[in-house]
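Re: weekly structure request thread

Next one in the queue (55 aa):
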Amino acid sequence: MELLMKTVIELMKAITQFVRFQMRVECKSCGRSYSRETLNYTNEFECKCGQKIFY
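Done, posted below.
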């Protein structure tokens, strides 16, 4: 039973990390990463390095 609980907790952590990763956008030039929430869910923005990013 204890092993099952540990497995469930690890699975939930993995799902949370995956969802967070899906909510991020990365600049191809400099590698900076932005959350879509920060970008107000727009589909185009300009990175601090000057590169325009579309997603």
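The two ends are 43 Å apart (CA to CA). Helices lie at 2-22.
Next request, please.
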